[in-house]
Amino acid sequence: MNEVFQALSDPTRREILRLLRQRDMSAGEIAECFPLANSTLSGHFKILKHSGLIVSERSGTTIVYSLKVSAFEGMLAAVMELFEVDKEPKESKK
Amino acid sequence: MNEVFQALSDPTRREILRLLRQRDMSAGEIAECFPLANSTLSGHFKILKHSGLIVSERSGTTIVYSLKVSAFEGMLAAVMELFEVDKEPKESKK
DNA sequence: GTGTTATTTCGTTAATTGGCGAAATAACGA
DNA sequence: TCGTTATTTCGCCAATTAACGAAATAACAC
Question: Is residue B59 part of a domain?
Answer without folding.
Answer: yes
